[in-house]
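yo, Acyltransferase, left-handed parallel beta-helix (Hexapeptide repeat) family is done. seq:
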Amino acid sequence: MAFRRIITMAKVYEMGGVIPVIDPTSFVHPDAVIIGDVIIGPNSYIGACACLRGDLGRIVISAGANIQDTCVIHSFPEVDVIVGENGHVGHGAILHGCTIGRNALIGMNAVVMDHAVIGENSFVAAMAFVKSGMTTGANMLIGGMPAREIRPLEKEEITRKAQGTLLYQWLAAQSKVSMREAEPLTEAEPDRGRVSPPP
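structure:
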């Protein structure tokens, strides 16, 4: 029988007497690194190899947000990074000293710099570079290097994003109860199952 152990603990570090806070309903992958003044709210998902480094400024991940694999979040003294409720931060993104509005989406490998504010329901395109101090409106598509507001988002686009965020909330709950370390099989079983999210 293959070795299996439920995954229970991320790499969490106290810094300067400040211990990270992780709501028990959230899932933080054991290969994520959480340091110092980090507050992770309920029903959030923190992916593998994400680094949330609250060793200078505070990091707040609000309820229902997801920070996907290999994201880096950091700041500098007295400046908070805030990811608003149901925020969606794609693989490899970097957030530094910025505020991400409620239900906003940050695309894969995008960079959002110091004192930038991304409006609620807005999307930052993959690979975009949001300059320090940029403030965007709500419901906007933002893209480019440097980034600019491209156009207002359609209601259907915002709805699709919300569905994707719900999928990550399901993934957080599912990961807590079903993700376990395992020895790999040497070949796929003939009746191999699939990970099946709700329809």
